[in-house]
Amino acid sequence: MLVSTGEQNSGGAMEQVGDNIIHHVSNSDIHHPIFSLPHLFNIDMSVTKHVLMLWIVALTVGFVVILPIQRYVQQRRLIPTGLMNALEIVVSFVRDTIVKPNVGLKWVNSWAPLILTFLFFIFFANAIGMIPIFDVLGLVNRFVFHVPANDSHNFINGLLHGGPTATGNFNVTAALAIITFLSIIIAGTKAHGFIQHWKNLVPHGLPGFVYIILIPIEIIGMFVKPFALTMRLAANMTGGHIALLAILSFMAIFADMFQSVFAGLGVALISVPLAVAISGLEIIVIIVQAYVFTLLSAVFIGMAIKVHH
Amino acid sequence: MEVLHYLGAAIGLGLIVIGAGLGIGRLAAAAADGIARQPEATDQITGAVNLPLFLLEGVAILAEVFVLLIVLMK
Predict the structure, then answer these.
(1) DSSP output for A70-82
(2) Does the CA dihedral B61-B62-B65-B66 come out positive or negative?
(3) Mutate which of B2, B13, B54 to disrupt the A interface (most A C-beta within 10 Å)?
(4) Residue A228 is nearest to which of B50, B58, B64, comparing CB atoms?
(5) Closest CA to A242 of A285, A288, A295, A290
């Protein structure tokens, strides 16, 4: 945190800490991008921190998941070795306990690839957000290469702005949830036909006045599902990081309040172990949130396929 | 009035924690009860508990986001 506070020395410790926390979980400023790209259809296509993180996540998934599976499929004897063992456990777990009970035997092979893609992408995006690689790079940049923190032309200084968790951005999770939203419609259309899918939204054979209440509720529910998916993932990832930074910030706040270094050091005895514990909790949250997003996507897709009246 | 603003957000956060805690607590208690009575149905009980647990968590998180918005957009 010390690395990026160079330019904001005005105001009390409390305001500085608040700005710092928001700065560490939000995207970097579009006006100071990491790479500048031209405008396309009046949209600034410049690369900010979260876009860069999405690219890193995509590369990681490619190297850790796609390449071993390609190599495995091209083998003459289909016996998994090394990393493929772990991947096979995850893939068969997702297919047998998440997709198959929800979607049904007939549609397992059509929807398991999408659900697996969600799982791997969200898991890697969450996990890379917990690795403090950019802060280490910033420390090396500041204290080994002696680049001042306010040098805005330095590449690594540009990387320090914004948080590293791409799934902590509501836009990223909204894009993922829109994919789920469209796949719900596609799943219902493929299983029952286009018109029958929309008819299936409400159970038939009810008295007329019930439909006046039921149809708006079902239409709202159609949009609430992806909205809840968006909020759950992004808020969980942001919330954990805010809690971690707030607890570490107690050191700065107490040192400033009592105007003494020893107050800060004393609080560090409590807040550093607490931060370690919350980091452990965050590692659980990373796995659980990737699981939850995939499970709920499978449940919603399954609800469009298995309609119960 | 500035203080009341933060006070409202803090009370809201407390209410969220009470509600979510009660909900998750009841769910976990019922699941533990069921597993203790019928250990062979553990997998089914865990599966049935997972989904409402995550939906409940989603509602709590949504409420927390709105509290955060109240504080940020004063």
Answers:
(1) HHHHH-SS----T
(2) negative
(3) B54
(4) B58
(5) A285
pLDDT digits (tens, 9 = 90+) for A51-107: 888 888 999 999 888 888 888 888 777 777 778 888 888 888 888 888 888 888 888
Sign (positive/negative) of CA torsion A153, A154, A160, A165? positive
What is the model's pLDDT at position A208? 78
Q: Hey, which residues 11-70 in chain B have their CB within 8 Å of chain A?
A: 47, 50-51, 54-55, 57-59, 61-62, 64-65
Contacts of A48 (CB under 8 A, 6+ apart): A27, A28, A29, A30, A33, A34, A162
* Encoded tokens for B13: 């956060």
Per-residue pLDDT tens over the stretch B31-68: 999 999 998 888 888 878 887 888 888 788 778 878 87
Q: Which two tokens stand for residue A48?
A: 């900010």
Containing H/E element for A263?
Answer: helix A261-305
Secondary structure (DSSP) of A85-108: HHHHHHHHHIIIIIIHHHH-GGGH
- State pTM to two decimals: 0.82
What does chain A come to in residues?
309
- Residue B42: what pLDDT? 85
| Structural element, H or E, at residue A55 | helix A49-61
Instruction: Give bridge partners of residue A35 from the DSSP assignment.
Output: A47
Count CB atoms within 10 A of the CB of residue A123: 22
Residue A301 and residue A183 in contact, taking contact as beta carbons nearer than 8 Å: yes
- Which tops the pLDDT comparison, A15 or A4? A15
Kindly list the residues from chain A whose CB atom is less than 8 angstroms away from the CB atom of residue B55: 228
CA A300 – CA B25 distance, rounded (Å): 26
Interface pTM, i.e. ipTM = 0.70
DSSP state of A43: E
